[in-house]
């Protein structure tokens, strides 16, 4: 079957009657078995059917495609045969009217000529075409020839030039064809023209032809085109023509003339290009619409300003906007291009085309963003940005807030695009969108704007944080990546700056302040205030970190200009936060950053805009910082005006690096006015930077420079503005090293400058080093120390109140400022005198701080001996305050002063002789107490402590003198009587409890001293004995210290047998007559004694060490008192079984638990009164045995003394049975008596317990 099929094919392809004569070399060696000689004879043969000829051509075409080289060799064997074959094909083309055969002929001819690559063959074909066209009486049959020429030039572009040069006569035939009433011919003519004009050289040669003949004809022909093929070829020719500015000008001029002619009476039939293209744009064919848009773009590319008005007047933009609703991406992209170019013409906006079309643009943008065509996204965003940027302010683009919101959401979506190029275009469009006239349609969509800005900043932050792999990128690519990031960041910052500008502009628009459609009862949302605070927050959290990260890689002046202008505008946008924001910026080294930018880019006249922005930013920030200073006074309005003028003139002139600025400051040569202003500005900048811990200048170099600066001022006789002098003092103090010191000349100059200042508060900045600076130099301290310390305490915020009453073992860490002051006080105690002067010369608050700090210092620095230094000052101050307060001493700083006085006394652990100064102080304090009422707790408590100390921490002779002075103050005695009476009315613990403790202790001390020294009594005081005994016999939760103080008083009375000349123990109201057996114990009764013993036992079992000592001591005195009057009763009381239970209650489970002083004293008491029922002889022996085995060196002195007394008591009672135990214990006690008490220094006797000065020995012994 295959063989039969092959034979049939050969029968068709070969002309059998002549084939046998043909040389085999003309036969194609592969299938199809085609003989070129047969084809040459078969194709022109009239007797061969057209179908067979078409088949032969089709096989030849297939052979050319499949076996191009073999066919080419076959045809090229003989040049004459080749040309003959081409002529046969061309003849067939011209004579056959079958369109399919024609197309095959054209295709074979084109392929053959292309494969042969022989110039002679091409010339042959061109000549044949030329002859054919010239020989035609009409253009009726010219379509095939014209199509062949067009495709030939399309295949071999170089033929265009040759065709024009060598066959120029063809142009006339083309013109004939263009007007021939056959659109197929016309389409072929346009196709050929298009190919000819695609060659620049041919186009230039044909320019005259076009101007004179083709141009007038072409537009009208194109307007009348009906078939799609003709329309497309017309548009194709137009596209080629529009590549050249010359032809564009010709066409547009012709169009202008046509439009003018239509407006007046003119020749019919003339048309304009805009109207022709408008017609195609209005067609429903997408291809024609796209081609029309391309042609419009091609015209506008040459000169939008020149050619756009013609299209705008033809209402082209309106129809372009309408077609944006198309689903064709190609058409939308083409329209975007047209509109972008039209937007360069102001007429486009003034005729409100953008107002008409903006909704279509936004919707198109929203739709295109859902597609994957990033080029479409970019082009749409570019158009939107152009419209937003160029829209005149007086013509509102968005007529409703809803439309504005749609635009904002579209931009937000575009900004968030993962494609960087799309996001970059979106950011630019968003930047243009943030304009007042675009946002003024009420209500302003602040929430939408905020969302848009958040999206922009988030996208930028995400991009800026993407890590750069420098190793894989290489140096050049890495630089490009950084540059790309910088551009994106710049665009984002420009958008943010526009938002800031928008907020500033809306501040003057009442309607833009808040949403007018919010219900009256609803919370105000979407307001300008909220938006402004968002801008500040976003800048702080996003903009600043992004810029700082980028600065680590590159610095771009344009970017920094925009960034600093944003910071500057935020001062205006959020005025209530500008001072806080300025402080944060200063603390983040923005003064340094701005100065470095000026030094790097703004020297001379370069980057003047950046210099202006930097200067404006620094100016505002400095004024904000100076008007809200930290640790110094605020400037007056007059001073602010002066500083403002100084900064305005000086800041733009500063463009030097920090070392150069420091060198400029130290210049000792004559300094002119403008240079001096620059120096002032530099100092203010350094000062504000240092205040906020940005020390970017070498401190040692600045210290030297400042000295030169001050000496230069002195040499020129100039006076510093207070602000500048403040900066100089602060910087010198901060930069001065511990080991370096100022020259005397500089110190003298500073002193002269300070003497010229009306008040030091004008130049003072609160800092420990500034204080140290003034106190370091005697010349400054003697003259200004008092005022400087006053200012220091005025500004100091650290408080010592929370440090009070803290045990010395657990002192909390001091604040740095107080630690620095304490260090100064330790190194120069004479400063304490100035501090004491401040107590009575400063305001109450300041004086209070001084006293609190002095008290804390004395508590923490017990090794510093200051008593003699400040005691005289105490007396002077106390006298001054007493005179000042007169009969009403309460209030003011007197309580703190007295507290400090008592503290100074308590610091003395050893007994001291009271000199005349101390006696005067004692007298003054006692007088002060006499003027007080029991309610003046804050004055009386430290005063009583001081008096109590004076009676107990001195020598015996001084105690007697002190008691005599105090007893002479009758008002004090009367006060004590009132205080003691209050004990019975106070319930439990009260604010006066500590004061009552001191009153009882002081009364007991007075009574003891008066009794022992037989001192004169000027005033007696009465105490109700029944109330006293009741308080001890039936205690109602009174504080242990108060009970111990009352016990001390009762013990003193018992020791004196109730015979004190000072204290009178009186009965409480009407009392029943005492029983006869009670007379012997008067003023006590038997029942009172028994009740008191029980009360003492109850107090002892509380196991409070101090209270237990007092109870035991009082029990000893009570039994002694009773025994002297009724031995049987004393023995009865001492032998009560309850005493044994009390003894064992006090003992715990620990080994040797009885070796405590209070227990040993109790056992001694029971042994003395031979209470064997309480403590048996065996038990006494056991105690002695255990004591003999114990390491007595570990016991306290008090316990050793109590053990010794117990041993002696047992010995005196004849209860020692075990002689070995007796000898061992006696040896140990003798050793202790010789060495132990001296080896172990006694513990501090005078303590402050709960604010009460207490002598432990006074309570115990």
From TrEMBL:
It comes from the Eukaryota. GO terms for biological process: meiosis I. PANTHER family: BCL2 INTERACTING MEDIATOR OF CELL DEATH (PTHR12044), MEIOSIS INHIBITOR PROTEIN 1 (PTHR12044:SF10). This is Meiotic double-stranded break formation protein 1. It comes from Spermophilus dauricus.
